[in-house]
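RESIDUES AND SHAPES:
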Amino acid sequence: MTITTTAALPRGLNTPIPGMTSTGGSEIYRIAVDGSPTRVWSSREDLVYALSFDANGKLLAGTGNQGHIYAISSEDDFTDLLKASATQVTGFAKTANGGLYASSSNLGKIFLLGGSPESEGTYESDVFDAHIFSRWGRAETRTTGNVELFARSGNVDNPDRNWSSWTKVDLQKDAQLNVPLARFVQWKAVLHAGTPAPKLDSVKLNYLSRNVAPDFDDVTIQPGVRYQAVPKSPAGDISISTGASGNMPQIRFDPPPITQHDSDSIGVKWTVHDDNDDQMVYSIYYRGDGENAGCC
Protein backbone atom coordinates (compact mmCIF):
# COMPACT_ATOMS: atom_id res chain seq x y z
CA MET A 1 0.00 0.00 0.00
CA THR A 2 1.14 3.56 -0.67
CA ILE A 3 -0.07 6.89 0.65
CA THR A 4 -0.29 9.96 -1.57
CA THR A 5 -0.92 13.36 0.00
CA THR A 6 -2.73 15.89 -2.19
CA ALA A 7 -4.01 19.45 -1.96
CA ALA A 8 -7.78 19.62 -2.28
CA LEU A 9 -9.19 22.42 -4.44
CA PRO A 10 -12.81 23.61 -4.69
CA ARG A 11 -14.89 21.52 -7.03
CA GLY A 12 -14.71 22.58 -10.65
CA LEU A 13 -11.31 24.27 -10.32
CA ASN A 14 -8.05 22.93 -11.69
CA THR A 15 -5.75 25.63 -10.33
CA PRO A 16 -5.49 27.30 -6.93
CA ILE A 17 -7.21 30.61 -6.33
CA PRO A 18 -4.92 33.34 -5.02
CA GLY A 19 -5.77 34.14 -1.43
CA MET A 20 -7.64 30.89 -0.79
CA THR A 21 -6.12 28.31 1.57
CA SER A 22 -6.08 24.70 0.33
CA THR A 23 -6.84 21.92 2.78
CA GLY A 24 -4.85 18.70 2.81
CA GLY A 25 -5.99 15.24 1.89
CA SER A 26 -4.74 11.70 1.30
CA GLU A 27 -5.14 8.76 -1.05
CA ILE A 28 -4.32 5.07 -0.50
CA TYR A 29 -3.37 2.86 -3.45
CA ARG A 30 -3.06 -0.92 -3.81
CA ILE A 31 -0.07 -1.96 -5.95
CA ALA A 32 -0.71 -5.18 -7.91
CA VAL A 33 1.93 -7.81 -8.62
CA ASP A 34 2.49 -6.36 -12.09
CA GLY A 35 3.01 -2.89 -10.57
CA SER A 36 -0.33 -1.38 -11.60
CA PRO A 37 -1.90 0.93 -8.97
CA THR A 38 -5.56 1.04 -7.87
CA ARG A 39 -6.90 3.74 -5.60
CA VAL A 40 -8.87 2.14 -2.76
CA TRP A 41 -9.54 5.13 -0.48
CA SER A 42 -9.31 8.93 -0.56
CA SER A 43 -10.25 11.89 1.61
CA ARG A 44 -10.21 15.65 1.11
CA GLU A 45 -9.74 16.35 4.85
CA ASP A 46 -8.00 13.41 6.55
CA LEU A 47 -4.23 12.91 6.43
CA VAL A 48 -3.04 9.30 6.72
CA TYR A 49 -0.18 8.79 9.20
CA ALA A 50 -0.15 5.00 9.67
CA LEU A 51 -1.33 1.77 8.02
CA SER A 52 -1.74 -1.73 9.42
CA PHE A 53 -3.82 -4.89 9.06
CA ASP A 54 -6.11 -6.33 11.73
CA ALA A 55 -6.40 -10.04 12.61
CA ASN A 56 -8.86 -10.58 9.73
CA GLY A 57 -6.58 -8.97 7.15
CA LYS A 58 -8.60 -5.75 6.88
CA LEU A 59 -6.58 -2.61 6.21
CA LEU A 60 -6.64 0.05 8.96
CA ALA A 61 -5.65 3.67 8.36
CA GLY A 62 -4.73 5.99 11.22
CA THR A 63 -5.41 9.63 10.30
CA GLY A 64 -5.43 13.24 11.47
CA ASN A 65 -6.21 15.87 12.23
CA GLN A 66 -9.40 14.54 13.81
CA GLY A 67 -8.02 11.25 15.10
CA HIS A 68 -10.11 8.86 12.99
CA ILE A 69 -9.22 5.22 12.29
CA TYR A 70 -10.75 3.82 9.10
CA ALA A 71 -11.20 0.12 8.27
CA ILE A 72 -10.93 -0.31 4.50
CA SER A 73 -12.56 -3.41 3.02
CA SER A 74 -12.23 -2.78 -0.72
CA GLU A 75 -12.27 0.00 -3.26
CA ASP A 76 -14.47 2.85 -1.94
CA ASP A 77 -15.84 0.53 0.78
CA PHE A 78 -14.66 1.59 4.23
CA THR A 79 -15.86 2.02 7.82
CA ASP A 80 -15.20 4.96 10.12
CA LEU A 81 -14.10 2.57 12.85
CA LEU A 82 -13.49 4.98 15.73
CA LYS A 83 -12.42 8.48 16.71
CA ALA A 84 -9.58 8.65 19.22
CA SER A 85 -9.41 11.34 21.90
CA ALA A 86 -6.33 12.78 20.20
CA THR A 87 -5.59 14.74 17.04
CA GLN A 88 -3.43 12.31 15.04
CA VAL A 89 -3.20 8.49 15.04
CA THR A 90 0.44 7.94 14.09
CA GLY A 91 1.26 4.22 14.48
CA PHE A 92 0.03 0.65 15.03
CA ALA A 93 1.56 -2.43 16.72
CA LYS A 94 0.00 -5.91 16.99
CA THR A 95 -0.80 -7.53 20.34
CA ALA A 96 -0.48 -11.22 21.20
CA ASN A 97 -4.26 -11.85 21.21
CA GLY A 98 -5.06 -10.39 17.78
CA GLY A 99 -5.64 -6.80 18.86
CA LEU A 100 -3.72 -3.67 17.99
CA TYR A 101 -2.00 -0.91 19.89
CA ALA A 102 -2.53 2.55 18.36
CA SER A 103 -0.29 5.48 19.23
CA SER A 104 -1.32 9.11 18.86
CA SER A 105 0.05 12.63 19.07
CA ASN A 106 -1.59 15.83 20.31
CA LEU A 107 -2.03 14.35 22.89
CA GLY A 108 0.47 11.50 23.06
CA LYS A 109 -1.46 8.37 24.06
CA ILE A 110 -1.53 4.58 23.54
CA PHE A 111 -4.89 2.97 22.73
CA LEU A 112 -5.75 -0.74 22.70
CA LEU A 113 -8.02 -2.01 19.92
CA GLY A 114 -9.43 -5.37 20.95
CA GLY A 115 -9.46 -8.37 18.66
CA SER A 116 -13.24 -8.88 18.99
CA PRO A 117 -16.06 -6.41 18.26
CA GLU A 118 -17.83 -4.46 20.99
CA SER A 119 -21.51 -5.08 21.77
CA GLU A 120 -22.32 -1.41 21.06
CA GLY A 121 -20.77 1.40 19.04
CA THR A 122 -21.60 5.09 18.59
CA TYR A 123 -20.99 7.43 15.67
CA GLU A 124 -21.55 11.22 15.85
CA SER A 125 -21.84 13.31 12.70
CA ASP A 126 -20.22 16.67 12.15
CA VAL A 127 -22.34 19.70 13.04
CA PHE A 128 -24.40 20.81 10.04
CA ASP A 129 -24.93 24.54 9.48
CA ALA A 130 -28.11 25.47 7.59
CA HIS A 131 -27.00 29.14 7.74
CA ILE A 132 -30.60 30.15 8.54
CA PHE A 133 -33.00 29.35 11.39
CA SER A 134 -34.69 26.16 10.12
CA ARG A 135 -37.38 23.58 10.84
CA TRP A 136 -36.00 20.04 10.89
CA GLY A 137 -38.16 17.38 9.24
CA ARG A 138 -37.71 13.66 8.78
CA ALA A 139 -34.59 11.53 8.45
CA GLU A 140 -33.91 9.19 5.55
CA THR A 141 -31.53 6.36 6.43
CA ARG A 142 -30.09 3.20 4.93
CA THR A 143 -29.28 0.77 7.73
CA THR A 144 -28.92 -2.94 8.42
CA GLY A 145 -29.43 -4.63 11.79
CA ASN A 146 -30.13 -2.91 15.10
CA VAL A 147 -29.34 0.79 14.61
CA GLU A 148 -30.76 3.69 16.64
CA LEU A 149 -30.66 7.34 15.52
CA PHE A 150 -30.65 10.43 17.75
CA ALA A 151 -30.59 14.15 16.92
CA ARG A 152 -30.08 17.50 18.63
CA SER A 153 -30.07 21.15 17.52
CA GLY A 154 -28.84 24.58 18.59
CA ASN A 155 -28.10 28.10 17.44
CA VAL A 156 -24.31 28.16 18.00
CA ASP A 157 -21.75 25.94 16.29
CA ASN A 158 -20.57 24.37 19.56
CA PRO A 159 -22.92 21.55 20.69
CA ASP A 160 -21.75 21.97 24.29
CA ARG A 161 -23.30 25.44 24.52
CA ASN A 162 -27.07 25.60 25.07
CA TRP A 163 -28.07 22.88 22.60
CA SER A 164 -31.10 20.65 23.02
CA SER A 165 -30.61 17.19 24.51
CA TRP A 166 -30.32 14.09 22.32
CA THR A 167 -33.77 13.00 21.08
CA LYS A 168 -34.39 9.53 19.65
CA VAL A 169 -35.69 9.38 16.08
CA ASP A 170 -38.36 6.72 15.55
CA LEU A 171 -37.13 5.05 12.36
CA GLN A 172 -40.01 2.54 12.43
CA LYS A 173 -42.70 5.25 12.38
CA ASP A 174 -42.28 8.62 10.63
CA ALA A 175 -38.56 9.25 11.36
CA GLN A 176 -39.34 12.83 12.39
CA LEU A 177 -36.61 14.86 14.08
CA ASN A 178 -38.44 16.18 17.11
CA VAL A 179 -35.81 18.81 17.85
CA PRO A 180 -36.30 22.57 18.31
CA LEU A 181 -36.11 24.92 15.33
CA ALA A 182 -32.50 26.07 15.06
CA ARG A 183 -29.67 26.91 12.70
CA PHE A 184 -27.41 23.93 13.54
CA VAL A 185 -28.15 20.21 13.83
CA GLN A 186 -26.22 17.02 14.61
CA TRP A 187 -27.16 13.34 14.52
CA LYS A 188 -25.81 10.32 16.38
CA ALA A 189 -26.13 6.63 15.50
CA VAL A 190 -25.88 3.83 18.06
CA LEU A 191 -25.13 0.40 16.58
CA HIS A 192 -25.99 -2.72 18.62
CA ALA A 193 -24.42 -6.13 17.97
CA GLY A 194 -26.74 -8.79 16.59
CA THR A 195 -27.71 -10.77 13.52
CA PRO A 196 -27.50 -9.36 10.94
CA ALA A 197 -24.55 -7.20 11.95
CA PRO A 198 -25.44 -3.51 12.34
CA LYS A 199 -24.46 -1.26 9.45
CA LEU A 200 -25.14 2.40 8.69
CA ASP A 201 -24.75 3.38 5.03
CA SER A 202 -26.25 6.87 4.86
CA VAL A 203 -28.25 9.49 6.75
CA LYS A 204 -30.10 12.37 5.09
CA LEU A 205 -31.89 15.07 7.12
CA ASN A 206 -34.66 17.08 5.50
CA TYR A 207 -35.21 20.66 6.63
CA LEU A 208 -36.99 23.88 5.67
CA SER A 209 -35.23 27.18 6.21
CA ARG A 210 -37.20 30.15 7.46
CA ASN A 211 -37.93 32.62 4.66
CA VAL A 212 -36.15 35.90 5.38
CA ALA A 213 -36.45 39.26 3.67
CA PRO A 214 -33.63 40.35 1.34
CA ASP A 215 -31.21 42.98 2.64
CA PHE A 216 -29.85 46.02 0.82
CA ASP A 217 -26.10 46.30 1.36
CA ASP A 218 -25.46 49.52 -0.55
CA VAL A 219 -27.25 52.18 -2.63
CA THR A 220 -25.25 54.64 -4.77
CA ILE A 221 -26.72 57.69 -6.56
CA GLN A 222 -24.56 59.44 -9.17
CA PRO A 223 -25.86 62.46 -11.19
CA GLY A 224 -24.76 62.75 -14.81
CA VAL A 225 -24.32 59.01 -15.30
CA ARG A 226 -26.38 56.48 -17.26
CA TYR A 227 -25.95 52.77 -16.57
CA GLN A 228 -26.27 50.43 -19.53
CA ALA A 229 -27.99 47.09 -19.09
CA VAL A 230 -25.64 44.14 -18.61
CA PRO A 231 -26.50 41.30 -21.03
CA LYS A 232 -27.40 38.00 -19.39
CA SER A 233 -25.08 35.15 -20.37
CA PRO A 234 -23.69 31.98 -18.75
CA ALA A 235 -20.28 33.65 -18.65
CA GLY A 236 -21.64 36.85 -17.17
CA ASP A 237 -20.85 35.86 -13.62
CA ILE A 238 -18.57 33.36 -11.90
CA SER A 239 -19.47 31.29 -8.84
CA ILE A 240 -16.85 29.33 -6.89
CA SER A 241 -17.93 26.58 -4.51
CA THR A 242 -15.66 26.64 -1.46
CA GLY A 243 -16.66 23.33 0.10
CA ALA A 244 -17.82 19.82 -0.78
CA SER A 245 -20.47 19.46 1.95
CA GLY A 246 -22.87 22.12 0.72
CA ASN A 247 -22.20 23.88 3.98
CA MET A 248 -20.00 26.63 2.69
CA PRO A 249 -21.19 29.83 0.97
CA GLN A 250 -20.33 30.61 -2.63
CA ILE A 251 -18.14 33.42 -3.84
CA ARG A 252 -19.96 35.29 -6.61
CA PHE A 253 -18.40 37.72 -9.06
CA ASP A 254 -20.72 39.97 -11.08
CA PRO A 255 -19.37 42.22 -13.87
CA PRO A 256 -19.71 45.93 -13.10
CA PRO A 257 -22.36 47.83 -15.07
CA ILE A 258 -21.19 49.86 -18.06
CA THR A 259 -21.50 53.62 -17.52
CA GLN A 260 -21.66 56.53 -19.91
CA HIS A 261 -21.85 60.29 -19.34
CA ASP A 262 -25.35 61.77 -19.66
CA SER A 263 -26.01 65.16 -18.06
CA ASP A 264 -29.78 64.54 -18.16
CA SER A 265 -29.61 61.28 -16.22
CA ILE A 266 -29.12 60.22 -12.63
CA GLY A 267 -27.60 56.76 -12.15
CA VAL A 268 -28.78 54.61 -9.27
CA LYS A 269 -26.93 51.43 -8.34
CA TRP A 270 -27.65 49.04 -5.49
CA THR A 271 -26.32 45.84 -3.97
CA VAL A 272 -28.67 43.35 -2.32
CA HIS A 273 -28.37 39.82 -0.94
CA ASP A 274 -30.91 37.18 0.01
CA ASP A 275 -29.98 34.50 2.56
CA ASN A 276 -32.46 32.05 1.00
CA ASP A 277 -30.80 32.50 -2.42
CA ASP A 278 -34.15 33.52 -3.91
CA GLN A 279 -34.18 35.26 -7.27
CA MET A 280 -34.58 39.02 -6.88
CA VAL A 281 -37.34 40.92 -8.72
CA TYR A 282 -37.30 44.71 -8.39
CA SER A 283 -39.95 47.45 -8.66
CA ILE A 284 -38.53 50.98 -8.83
CA TYR A 285 -40.49 54.12 -7.94
CA TYR A 286 -39.32 57.73 -8.17
CA ARG A 287 -40.67 61.30 -7.91
CA GLY A 288 -39.25 64.77 -8.29
CA ASP A 289 -38.44 67.14 -5.46
CA GLY A 290 -41.71 68.62 -4.13
CA GLU A 291 -43.94 66.24 -6.11
CA ASN A 292 -46.62 64.19 -4.31
CA ALA A 293 -47.24 61.56 -7.01
CA GLY A 294 -44.55 59.08 -7.82
CA CYS A 295 -43.84 57.11 -10.94
CA CYS A 296 -42.44 53.65 -11.60
About this structure: The longest strand covers residues 128-144.
